[in-house]
Amino acid sequence: MDRHQLCEALHAAGVPAGLYEIPDCPGPPGGPRPEDRLYLTEQAGEWVVGVRQRGVRTVLARFPDEDRACRSLHARLTAEGPPPSPLTPGEAEELAHGAEGVQRRAREQLARALRDAEGGPAPARDGLRHDP
Asked: Are 38 and 73 in contact (CB under 8 A)?
């Protein structure tokens, strides 16, 4: 596989063009590439697969030929990863209580913001206004 075939294979697999940088492979239409992406390049007679994060390039692997480098990048960009594992009863309980806490804090923040915007009396602990 060469870089042109890799570009075609990634497009056919539905991998967004903004996730990678390959020489002679067109980027996403209408805008710049994201700052963080995987890349393929040739350096000093070998092929490099790496990642660019916040403008810094880090080499992940070096290959003696273009074919191996292209196959490596393709595998990295098309890997599905492990399937999600089901939650244990304890994790499900923790998640449910965490959601209640997030909702409670959001109600409190909303009540404070409304109070501050209106300049009215402070709301009661239940988040509702109780006028005297």
From this structure: yes
